[in-house]
Amino acid sequence: METKYAITVDDLTVAYNYKPVLWDIDLAIPEGVLMAIVGPNGAGKSTLIKSILGIIKPIAGSVKIFGKPYKKQFKEVAYVPQKGSVDWDFPTTALDVVMMGTYGSLGWVKRPGQKEKKAALEALEKVGMLSFKSRQISQLSGGQQQRIFLARALVQNASIYLMDEPFQGVDATTEKAIINILKELRKAGKTLIVVHHDLQTVPEYFDWVTFLNVKKIATGPVKDIFNDGNLTKTYGINYKVSVQE
Amino acid sequence: MTVTEYFNLLFTDYTLQTITLGTAILGALCGMLGSFAVLRKQSLLGDAISHAALPGIALAFLITGAKDSNTLLIGALVSGLVGTFWIRGIVKKTHLKTDTALGLILSLFFGFGMLLLTFIQKMPNANQAGLDKYLFGQAATLVASDVWTMCIIAGLSLLILLVFWKEFKLLLFDVDYTKSLGFNVKFLDVLITFFIVISIVVGLQTVGVVLMSAMLLAPAAAARQWTNSLSVMVVLAAIFGACSGVFGTAISASSNNLSTGPVIVLIAAVFVLFSFIFSPKRGLLFREIRYRSNRKDLELNKTLAFMYQIVESHDNINHPHAIKILNNFHGFTRKSLQKLEDRELITVTKTMWSLTEKGFSTAANLYNQLEENE
Lengths: 245, 374
What we know:
The structure holds two protein chains of two kinds. Chain A is 33% helix and 25% strand. Chain A has ten helices and nine strands. Chain A is globular and about 50 Å long. Chain B has 18 helices and three strands. The longest helix of chain B has 29 residues, at 284-312. Chain B starts with a helix and ends with a helix.
């Protein structure tokens, strides 16, 4: 059986001011995997995600979503940015932020209506934040803000989810809640790509992994390639992680 | 003429009506668009744009020789836009940061504009008097056609805001996410910036290049204090802006033609000051009051928690205990016990106290965050 690829990246090179951040990346992500992108700070993990989303223009290479350029496929892709990338003092409520997830399928000018509101409320319930729907977003804790961002992506009802450090600064309960939702999504056949920092939890949470440090070090199933050799190549120091079989 | 006389005359005097209407519309327009500038953290862009408009005014006069305000404003618009795109260009193409680019363009254009103004003043042409009004503004020079221009621009801006409301809100909150949803961010960005530039340019005659940015920022900053909803903020900012415009013009026109710009800006500053202190949620005053009452509550809670510890070891919660045993603990006074009794959390009889059922359950859930969140 031929594998269907959700995302294919060819020869992708990105640079900010002459210094390459991503160098000649080739990547084929099969449909239906829950994949972690790991690598040290400055390895280009966020840049890779942003390049896939067309937010950053690469100097060379191409990205295809189900075989077509991103511009034609944006409805298939949901994005969870880093929590710190927005100003949480913005005058709006939790429900309103989640509603933003419906804007893409609505397209230009059209306003969200009852149907969109219902979808947003359902997403809020899924992440356990329904009782906070009218809360001003600045009054949410870090973990709650992260859940709101996740709910916003859920509303998009996409096939591919790209998440930039969704576990950053959240407590153990929230982390469990989020990973359960991600696993549920994978069961529903979605493809999930997650920038992840906690190497200890990689084997437990993910089934696919990409090692990145400006260049792609390795990509494949966690059970095959998540080993000390690749970790050492990626992080440059001798890493020992116990991999549970 | 006093301010009261001004407002009495307003019902009969056509000129005053024109001026007042003009400043009201201008204030509303600036307040509305200013909210966007403030939330985009582009507060200083307005300052740079208004200063960058000055050489345009002078050049338009030099080229056409006319002092007709619409011609001059077109000059201002062109040079304001050139300034804006240069700022963007500098930020994009060089390593310089936004604040440096703004400062550079602001002083460069303003310096050039002042140079042209002094040059114009030395020209043997009686027509040049009055161009310096654009520095600090003079609402009294507004005529009906100026007000019409403002009306049209305000109407257009309102229309654009209503049509693209959803997209602008998204852009203000999260640019990258807006891009990922397939919206053309560049188009939205140029659109909103263009209208901010236009609103600044139409305000130059009334408020002047030097203080125009305050007209954009002050109403928005004041409005932000009162609400947590973007739409309410925009409406409030428009109202604050209109009020500053009208009252500022009234004062400036009734007291020997003071420059309008500074007076309007001072009125707007009063709005800001008032909002910073008295707004219920974000204001300094109520924050201090809340802080103090919270601290008192905390002390009461501490006492209550201590009582709970004692009571817990007994089977009967209502069993009375001596007040004396609380002595080791610093958090209580007669007054705080009285307060706890007022809230029906404890009962006090002479030298004894006991927890009520309500007091017991309150104390038990005191630090239970999960329930508090509901």
